[in-house]
Protein backbone atom coordinates (compact mmCIF):
# COMPACT_ATOMS: atom_id res chain seq x y z
CA UNK A 1 0.00 0.00 0.00
CA UNK A 2 2.89 2.32 0.84
CA UNK A 3 4.54 1.58 -2.51
CA UNK A 4 1.29 2.29 -4.35
CA UNK A 5 0.97 5.63 -2.51
CA UNK A 6 4.52 6.54 -3.54
CA UNK A 7 3.75 5.58 -7.11
CA UNK A 8 0.59 7.68 -6.97
CA UNK A 9 2.57 10.64 -5.62
CA UNK A 10 5.08 10.30 -8.46
CA UNK A 11 2.27 10.36 -11.03
CA UNK A 12 0.82 13.46 -9.36
CA UNK A 13 4.24 15.13 -9.48
CA UNK A 14 4.68 14.32 -13.18
CA UNK A 15 1.26 15.65 -14.14
CA UNK A 16 1.86 18.76 -12.03
CA UNK A 17 5.16 19.30 -13.86
CA UNK A 18 3.22 19.33 -17.13
CA UNK A 19 0.79 21.88 -15.72
CA UNK A 20 -2.17 19.65 -14.88
CA UNK A 21 -3.36 19.59 -11.26
CA UNK A 22 -4.37 15.95 -11.00
CA UNK A 23 -5.94 15.10 -7.64
CA UNK A 24 -8.76 13.12 -6.07
CA UNK A 25 -11.34 15.66 -7.25
CA UNK A 26 -10.80 14.64 -10.87
CA UNK A 27 -13.39 12.25 -12.36
CA UNK A 28 -12.63 8.56 -11.92
CA UNK A 29 -12.47 7.89 -15.66
CA UNK A 30 -9.55 10.32 -16.04
CA UNK A 31 -7.28 8.31 -13.73
CA UNK A 32 -6.58 5.39 -16.14
CA UNK A 33 -6.01 7.86 -18.99
CA UNK A 34 -3.41 9.74 -16.95
CA UNK A 35 -1.61 6.54 -15.96
CA UNK A 36 -1.53 5.27 -19.56
CA UNK A 37 -0.34 8.60 -20.97
CA UNK A 38 2.30 9.45 -18.36
CA UNK A 39 3.49 6.04 -17.11
CA UNK A 40 2.81 3.00 -19.27
CA UNK A 41 3.11 4.58 -22.74
CA UNK A 42 6.41 6.42 -22.00
CA UNK A 43 7.87 3.30 -20.34
CA UNK A 44 6.93 1.17 -23.35
CA UNK A 45 8.25 3.79 -25.77
CA UNK A 46 11.61 4.02 -24.01
CA UNK A 47 11.87 0.24 -23.86
CA UNK A 48 11.04 -0.15 -27.54
CA UNK A 49 13.54 2.55 -28.58
CA UNK A 50 16.32 0.93 -26.49
CA UNK A 51 15.48 -2.48 -27.95
CA UNK A 52 15.52 -1.16 -31.52
CA UNK A 53 18.84 0.63 -30.99
CA UNK A 54 20.46 -2.48 -29.53
CA UNK A 55 19.03 -4.63 -32.30
CA UNK A 56 20.23 -2.22 -34.98
CA UNK A 57 23.73 -2.16 -33.47
CA UNK A 58 23.91 -5.96 -33.37
CA UNK A 59 22.69 -6.22 -36.96
CA UNK A 60 25.28 -3.68 -38.07
CA UNK A 61 28.11 -5.56 -36.32
CA UNK A 62 26.93 -8.85 -37.79
CA UNK A 63 26.70 -7.38 -41.27
CA UNK A 64 30.22 -5.97 -41.00
CA UNK A 65 31.51 -9.37 -39.89
CA UNK A 66 29.88 -11.10 -42.85
CA UNK A 67 31.18 -8.51 -45.31
CA UNK A 68 34.70 -9.01 -43.98
CA UNK A 69 34.39 -12.77 -44.64
CA UNK A 70 33.17 -12.27 -48.20
CA UNK A 71 35.49 -11.80 -51.17
CA UNK A 72 36.47 -8.16 -51.57
CA UNK A 73 36.11 -8.10 -55.35
CA UNK A 74 33.59 -5.58 -56.61
CA UNK A 75 30.39 -7.29 -57.82
CA UNK A 76 29.48 -4.46 -60.19
CA UNK A 77 32.10 -1.90 -61.08
CA UNK A 78 30.95 1.52 -59.91
CA UNK A 79 28.59 0.18 -57.21
CA UNK A 80 29.35 -0.03 -53.51
CA UNK A 81 28.40 -2.95 -51.29
CA UNK A 82 26.06 -0.63 -49.39
CA UNK A 83 23.01 0.92 -51.04
CA UNK A 84 23.43 4.14 -49.04
CA UNK A 85 27.06 4.53 -50.13
CA UNK A 86 26.10 4.05 -53.77
CA UNK A 87 23.31 6.62 -53.59
CA UNK A 88 25.51 9.19 -51.84
CA UNK A 89 28.34 8.55 -54.28
CA UNK A 90 26.26 9.69 -57.26
CA UNK A 91 23.82 12.20 -55.70
CA UNK A 92 25.55 13.79 -52.72
CA UNK A 93 24.93 17.40 -53.79
CA UNK A 94 21.33 16.74 -54.77
CA UNK A 95 20.69 15.06 -51.40
CA UNK A 96 21.99 18.15 -49.58
CA UNK A 97 19.72 20.42 -51.64
CA UNK A 98 16.64 18.29 -50.93
CA UNK A 99 17.41 18.17 -47.20
CA UNK A 100 17.71 21.97 -47.16
CA UNK A 101 14.38 22.36 -48.95
CA UNK A 102 12.75 19.99 -46.47
CA UNK A 103 14.01 21.90 -43.43
CA UNK A 104 12.92 25.27 -44.85
CA UNK A 105 9.33 24.05 -45.19
CA UNK A 106 8.99 23.23 -41.44
CA UNK A 107 8.30 26.83 -40.22
CA UNK A 108 5.66 27.24 -42.93
CA UNK A 109 4.03 24.02 -41.75
CA UNK A 110 3.87 25.34 -38.19
CA UNK A 111 2.15 28.52 -39.42
CA UNK A 112 -0.51 26.43 -41.21
CA UNK A 113 -1.23 24.70 -37.87
CA UNK A 114 -1.31 27.89 -35.79
CA UNK A 115 -3.55 30.05 -38.00
CA UNK A 116 -6.74 27.92 -37.64
CA UNK A 117 -6.42 28.25 -33.86
CA UNK A 118 -6.07 32.03 -34.16
CA UNK A 119 -9.12 32.20 -36.42
CA UNK A 120 -11.30 30.25 -33.97
CA UNK A 121 -10.05 31.97 -30.80
CA UNK A 122 -9.62 35.55 -32.03
CA UNK A 123 -11.50 36.28 -35.26
CA UNK A 124 -14.68 34.53 -34.09
CA UNK A 125 -14.74 36.16 -30.64
CA UNK A 126 -17.12 39.12 -31.12
CA UNK A 127 -16.62 40.57 -27.61
CA UNK A 128 -13.18 42.03 -28.28
CA UNK A 129 -13.79 44.13 -31.39
CA UNK A 130 -12.72 46.52 -32.71
CA UNK A 131 -9.06 45.84 -31.97
CA UNK A 132 -6.03 48.08 -32.53
CA UNK A 133 -2.81 46.92 -34.14
CA UNK A 134 0.02 49.28 -35.14
CA UNK A 135 -2.32 52.23 -35.04
CA UNK A 136 -4.98 50.60 -37.23
CA UNK A 137 -8.42 49.44 -36.07
CA UNK A 138 -9.87 46.18 -37.35
CA UNK A 139 -13.42 44.95 -37.07
CA UNK A 140 -14.32 41.27 -36.79
CA UNK A 141 -14.90 40.61 -40.50
CA UNK A 142 -11.68 42.39 -41.50
CA UNK A 143 -9.59 40.36 -39.06
CA UNK A 144 -11.28 37.16 -40.21
CA UNK A 145 -10.44 37.94 -43.84
CA UNK A 146 -6.84 38.84 -42.98
CA UNK A 147 -6.24 35.64 -41.01
CA UNK A 148 -7.99 33.56 -43.67
CA UNK A 149 -5.85 35.21 -46.35
CA UNK A 150 -2.69 34.45 -44.39
CA UNK A 151 -3.82 30.85 -44.02
CA UNK A 152 -4.43 30.61 -47.77
CA UNK A 153 -0.98 32.08 -48.41
CA UNK A 154 0.64 29.65 -45.97
CA UNK A 155 -0.97 26.54 -47.44
CA UNK A 156 -0.12 27.78 -50.94
CA UNK A 157 3.55 28.23 -50.05
CA UNK A 158 3.55 24.85 -48.31
CA UNK A 159 1.98 23.13 -51.33
CA UNK A 160 4.33 24.89 -53.77
CA UNK A 161 7.41 23.87 -51.78
CA UNK A 162 6.24 20.25 -51.73
CA UNK A 163 5.60 20.38 -55.48
CA UNK A 164 9.08 21.75 -56.23
CA UNK A 165 10.66 19.19 -53.90
CA UNK A 166 8.78 16.29 -55.50
CA UNK A 167 9.72 17.40 -59.02
CA UNK A 168 13.37 17.66 -58.01
CA UNK A 169 13.16 14.25 -56.33
CA UNK A 170 11.84 12.81 -59.60
CA UNK A 171 14.81 14.33 -61.44
CA UNK A 172 17.27 12.83 -58.94
CA UNK A 173 15.56 9.42 -59.06
CA UNK A 174 15.59 9.20 -62.85
CA UNK A 175 19.18 10.39 -63.07
CA UNK A 176 20.33 7.76 -60.58
CA UNK A 177 18.20 5.07 -62.24
CA UNK A 178 19.79 5.74 -65.63
CA UNK A 179 23.28 5.48 -64.15
CA UNK A 180 22.35 2.35 -62.18
CA UNK A 181 20.97 0.66 -65.31
CA UNK A 182 24.09 1.51 -67.28
CA UNK A 183 26.37 0.07 -64.59
CA UNK A 184 24.38 -3.18 -64.37
CA UNK A 185 24.18 -3.43 -68.15
CA UNK A 186 27.93 -2.92 -68.51
CA UNK A 187 28.60 -5.58 -65.87
CA UNK A 188 26.36 -8.01 -67.75
CA UNK A 189 28.00 -7.29 -71.10
CA UNK A 190 31.50 -7.81 -69.69
CA UNK A 191 30.71 -10.99 -67.74
CA UNK A 192 31.31 -13.95 -70.06
CA UNK A 193 31.00 -16.44 -67.18
CA UNK A 194 27.37 -15.56 -66.41
CA UNK A 195 25.28 -18.74 -66.55
CA UNK A 196 21.87 -17.04 -66.46
CA UNK A 197 22.18 -14.16 -68.85
CA UNK A 198 18.49 -14.31 -69.81
CA UNK A 199 17.61 -13.15 -66.30
CA UNK A 200 19.08 -9.73 -67.08
CA UNK A 201 15.80 -8.75 -68.78
CA UNK A 202 13.64 -8.62 -65.60
CA UNK A 203 16.59 -7.16 -63.71
CA UNK A 204 17.05 -4.18 -66.04
CA UNK A 205 13.33 -3.75 -66.75
CA UNK A 206 11.73 -4.22 -63.32
CA UNK A 207 14.08 -4.85 -60.41
CA UNK A 208 16.16 -1.69 -60.79
CA UNK A 209 13.08 0.57 -60.80
CA UNK A 210 12.45 0.54 -57.02
CA UNK A 211 16.15 1.07 -56.33
CA UNK A 212 16.22 4.15 -58.56
CA UNK A 213 13.05 5.56 -57.05
CA UNK A 214 14.38 5.05 -53.54
CA UNK A 215 17.53 7.01 -54.32
CA UNK A 216 15.61 10.28 -54.06
CA UNK A 217 14.01 9.31 -50.73
CA UNK A 218 16.97 7.72 -48.99
CA UNK A 219 17.69 10.82 -46.88
CA UNK A 220 15.02 13.34 -47.88
CA UNK A 221 11.98 11.33 -46.83
CA UNK A 222 13.06 10.66 -43.22
CA UNK A 223 14.17 14.29 -42.85
CA UNK A 224 10.97 15.66 -44.40
CA UNK A 225 8.51 13.33 -42.70
CA UNK A 226 10.46 13.18 -39.44
CA UNK A 227 10.61 16.98 -39.36
CA UNK A 228 6.90 17.17 -40.11
CA UNK A 229 6.19 14.71 -37.30
CA UNK A 230 8.31 16.66 -34.80
CA UNK A 231 6.79 19.99 -35.88
CA UNK A 232 3.25 18.70 -35.38
CA UNK A 233 4.20 17.09 -32.07
CA UNK A 234 5.80 20.35 -30.90
CA UNK A 235 2.62 22.22 -31.82
CA UNK A 236 0.52 19.74 -29.82
CA UNK A 237 2.76 20.03 -26.75
CA UNK A 238 2.61 23.83 -26.91
CA UNK A 239 -1.20 23.73 -26.97
CA UNK A 240 -1.37 21.24 -24.07
CA UNK A 241 1.37 18.87 -22.84
CA UNK A 242 -1.17 16.23 -21.80
CA UNK A 243 -2.69 16.06 -25.27
CA UNK A 244 0.79 16.09 -26.80
CA UNK A 245 1.74 13.09 -24.68
CA UNK A 246 -1.55 11.40 -25.59
CA UNK A 247 -0.55 11.58 -29.27
CA UNK A 248 2.31 9.17 -28.49
CA UNK A 249 0.25 6.68 -26.48
CA UNK A 250 -0.14 4.07 -29.25
CA UNK A 251 3.25 4.66 -30.88
CA UNK A 252 5.06 1.89 -28.90
CA UNK A 253 2.54 -0.70 -30.11
CA UNK A 254 3.04 0.42 -33.69
CA UNK A 255 6.82 0.23 -33.33
CA UNK A 256 6.61 -3.31 -31.97
CA UNK A 257 4.04 -4.96 -34.23
CA UNK A 258 4.29 -3.28 -37.62
CA UNK A 259 8.03 -3.84 -38.31
CA UNK A 260 7.76 -7.52 -37.35
CA UNK A 261 4.86 -8.03 -39.74
CA UNK A 262 6.66 -6.09 -42.45
CA UNK A 263 9.69 -8.36 -42.26
CA UNK A 264 7.38 -11.24 -43.12
CA UNK A 265 6.28 -9.31 -46.21
CA UNK A 266 9.93 -8.65 -47.11
CA UNK A 267 10.68 -12.38 -46.99
CA UNK A 268 7.77 -13.13 -49.29
CA UNK A 269 8.90 -10.36 -51.65
CA UNK A 270 12.29 -12.00 -51.93
CA UNK A 271 10.68 -15.32 -52.80
CA UNK A 272 8.56 -13.55 -55.44
CA UNK A 273 11.68 -12.03 -57.03
CA UNK A 274 13.32 -15.44 -57.32
CA UNK A 275 10.15 -16.97 -58.80
CA UNK A 276 9.95 -14.22 -61.44
CA UNK A 277 13.59 -14.81 -62.38
CA UNK A 278 13.00 -18.55 -62.58
CA UNK A 279 9.98 -18.00 -64.81
CA UNK A 280 11.98 -15.68 -67.06
CA UNK A 281 14.70 -18.31 -67.40
CA UNK A 282 12.12 -20.96 -68.32
CA UNK A 283 10.54 -18.74 -70.97
CA UNK A 284 13.96 -17.92 -72.40
CA UNK A 285 14.80 -21.62 -72.63
CA UNK A 286 11.52 -22.24 -74.43
CA UNK A 287 12.34 -19.54 -76.94
CA UNK A 288 15.62 -21.31 -77.68
CA UNK A 289 13.95 -24.71 -77.80
CA UNK A 290 15.90 -26.16 -74.88
CA UNK A 291 12.84 -27.72 -73.21
CA UNK A 292 11.07 -29.09 -76.24
CA UNK A 293 12.82 -32.44 -75.99
CA UNK A 294 11.67 -33.14 -72.42
CA UNK A 295 8.05 -32.14 -73.00
CA UNK A 296 7.97 -30.16 -69.73
CA UNK A 297 7.40 -26.78 -71.36
CA UNK A 298 3.86 -26.17 -70.16
CA UNK A 299 4.23 -27.96 -66.84
CA UNK A 300 7.19 -25.89 -65.66
CA UNK A 301 5.55 -22.59 -66.55
CA UNK A 302 2.29 -23.68 -64.93
CA UNK A 303 4.10 -24.53 -61.71
CA UNK A 304 5.79 -21.14 -61.68
CA UNK A 305 2.46 -19.39 -62.23
CA UNK A 306 0.94 -21.33 -59.33
CA UNK A 307 3.82 -20.51 -56.98
CA UNK A 308 3.66 -16.84 -57.90
CA UNK A 309 -0.07 -16.80 -57.15
CA UNK A 310 0.46 -18.37 -53.72
CA UNK A 311 3.24 -15.96 -52.78
CA UNK A 312 1.32 -12.89 -53.92
CA UNK A 313 -1.79 -14.01 -52.02
CA UNK A 314 0.23 -14.28 -48.83
CA UNK A 315 1.73 -10.84 -49.50
CA UNK A 316 -1.75 -9.33 -49.96
CA UNK A 317 -3.03 -10.88 -46.71
CA UNK A 318 -0.13 -9.52 -44.67
CA UNK A 319 -0.02 -6.09 -46.33
CA UNK A 320 -3.72 -5.40 -45.83
CA UNK A 321 -3.60 -6.73 -42.27
CA UNK A 322 -0.75 -4.29 -41.55
CA UNK A 323 -2.79 -1.47 -43.07
CA UNK A 324 -5.93 -2.34 -41.08
CA UNK A 325 -3.99 -2.66 -37.82
CA UNK A 326 -2.22 0.65 -38.37
CA UNK A 327 -5.49 2.43 -39.17
CA UNK A 328 -7.11 1.06 -36.00
CA UNK A 329 -4.20 2.10 -33.78
CA UNK A 330 -4.12 5.55 -35.38
CA UNK A 331 -7.85 6.00 -34.71
CA UNK A 332 -7.36 5.39 -30.97
CA UNK A 333 -5.60 8.73 -30.43
CA UNK A 334 -8.57 10.92 -31.56
CA UNK A 335 -10.63 9.02 -28.99
CA UNK A 336 -8.28 10.37 -26.31
CA UNK A 337 -8.49 13.85 -27.79
CA UNK A 338 -12.29 13.92 -27.89
CA UNK A 339 -12.72 12.56 -24.36
CA UNK A 340 -9.78 14.04 -22.46
CA UNK A 341 -9.48 17.20 -24.58
CA UNK A 342 -13.22 17.82 -24.41
CA UNK A 343 -13.05 17.60 -20.62
CA UNK A 344 -10.18 20.12 -20.60
CA UNK A 345 -12.28 22.54 -22.69
CA UNK A 346 -15.18 22.20 -20.23
CA UNK A 347 -12.76 22.82 -17.35
CA UNK A 348 -11.34 25.86 -19.12
CA UNK A 349 -7.84 24.38 -19.23
CA UNK A 350 -7.55 24.85 -23.01
CA UNK A 351 -9.57 26.82 -25.53
CA UNK A 352 -11.90 25.33 -28.08
CA UNK A 353 -9.67 26.67 -30.82
CA UNK A 354 -6.67 24.85 -29.34
CA UNK A 355 -8.61 21.56 -29.26
CA UNK A 356 -9.76 22.03 -32.86
CA UNK A 357 -6.19 22.82 -33.88
CA UNK A 358 -4.85 19.72 -32.07
CA UNK A 359 -7.44 17.51 -33.77
CA UNK A 360 -6.55 18.99 -37.16
CA UNK A 361 -2.84 18.60 -36.41
CA UNK A 362 -3.28 14.95 -35.45
CA UNK A 363 -4.94 14.33 -38.79
CA UNK A 364 -1.69 15.49 -40.34
CA UNK A 365 0.30 13.70 -37.62
CA UNK A 366 -0.71 10.24 -38.83
CA UNK A 367 0.37 10.94 -42.43
CA UNK A 368 4.12 11.40 -41.79
CA UNK A 369 4.02 8.49 -39.35
CA UNK A 370 2.64 6.26 -42.10
CA UNK A 371 5.26 7.63 -44.47
CA UNK A 372 8.04 6.74 -42.03
CA UNK A 373 6.68 3.20 -41.62
CA UNK A 374 6.41 3.02 -45.41
CA UNK A 375 10.00 4.25 -45.66
CA UNK A 376 11.12 1.42 -43.41
CA UNK A 377 9.22 -1.06 -45.55
CA UNK A 378 10.67 0.37 -48.76
CA UNK A 379 14.16 0.49 -47.27
CA UNK A 380 14.08 -3.20 -46.43
CA UNK A 381 12.60 -4.19 -49.78
CA UNK A 382 15.01 -1.99 -51.77
CA UNK A 383 18.02 -3.23 -49.83
CA UNK A 384 16.99 -6.79 -50.65
CA UNK A 385 16.62 -5.92 -54.34
CA UNK A 386 19.96 -4.13 -54.39
CA UNK A 387 21.69 -7.11 -52.80
CA UNK A 388 20.04 -9.50 -55.26
CA UNK A 389 21.10 -7.38 -58.25
CA UNK A 390 24.71 -7.02 -57.15
CA UNK A 391 25.02 -10.67 -56.09
CA UNK A 392 23.76 -11.71 -59.56
CA UNK A 393 27.25 -10.88 -60.84
CA UNK A 394 29.11 -12.48 -57.91
CA UNK A 395 29.58 -16.17 -58.71
CA UNK A 396 32.54 -16.30 -56.32
CA UNK A 397 30.34 -15.58 -53.29
CA UNK A 398 30.04 -18.66 -51.13
CA UNK A 399 26.52 -20.12 -50.65
CA UNK A 400 26.80 -20.16 -46.86
CA UNK A 401 27.79 -16.48 -46.92
CA UNK A 402 24.76 -15.64 -49.06
CA UNK A 403 22.46 -17.47 -46.66
CA UNK A 404 23.93 -15.60 -43.69
CA UNK A 405 23.38 -12.31 -45.49
CA UNK A 406 19.75 -13.22 -46.10
CA UNK A 407 19.30 -13.94 -42.41
CA UNK A 408 20.16 -10.33 -41.64
CA UNK A 409 17.14 -8.94 -43.48
CA UNK A 410 14.57 -11.69 -43.14
CA UNK A 411 12.68 -13.49 -40.43
CA UNK A 412 11.06 -16.94 -40.67
CA UNK A 413 8.17 -16.92 -43.08
CA UNK A 414 5.63 -18.77 -40.96
CA UNK A 415 2.31 -16.95 -40.99
CATH superfamily: ABC transporter type 1, transmembrane domain
Number of helices: 11
Integer-rounded radius of gyration: 27 Å
* Main β-sheet description: 2 strands, antiparallel
In the residues, how many domains can be counted? 1
Low-confidence stretches: 397-415
Tell the overall outline: globular
Strands side by side in the biggest sheet:
1-2
Tell me the helix content: over 70%
Q: How do the SSEs run, as a string of H and E? A: HHHEEHHHHHHHH
The CATH topology, please? ABC transporter transmembrane region fold
The CATH class label is: Mainly Alpha
Please describe what this structure looks like:
This protein has one domain: ABC transporter type 1, transmembrane domain (ABC transporter transmembrane region fold), CATH 1.20.1560. The longest helix is centred in the last third of the chain and has 51 residues, at 297-347. With 415 residues, it is mostly helical. The chain has a two-stranded antiparallel sheet. It has helices spanning 2-17, 30-69, 83-123, 140-189, 200-215, 220-239, 241-246, 251-287, 297-347, 352-391, 399-409; strands spanning 131-133, 136-138.
